[in-house]
Amino acid sequence: MRWQPNSPAHEKQTNLPFVPPLWRRRGRRQWRDMLFIGMMTIGWLAGNILALLGCVVAAFLVISHGDFAVFMAHIDNVASRYIAADLGRRARFEHEVLMTLATCGTVFFAIRLPRFVMRLRLELAQEQ
Predict the structure, then answer these.
(1) Is the pTM of this model over 0.70?
(2) Domain ranges in the chain?
(3) Cβ(111)–Cβ(52) under 8 Å?
């Protein structure tokens, strides 16, 4: 079917309800706010995960007393023991590492979440 500018399907529909511009702006603002909140939350989570993994590196640095050679020796020791272990021990080690990171991450997120929410509310309030 060819487009015809004077066809009844393309005429202005007068039976649609009038939507004031304020409602349209409010809808756009809500959409923009949702995207802003989503992007800020993703960035906050990524930063927290990187900080948590940095804490693991910092723990190895503290164990090695800041000496890079000892630090690498500790990493080499963990890696060689992991590779030499059987599947049951590997699974138990992975489970312990995962549970430790999950516990530390939960505490880390719980401590930092209130400040993030306050900052997010302030930024959204300043935008209005």
Answers:
(1) no
(2) 24-127
(3) no
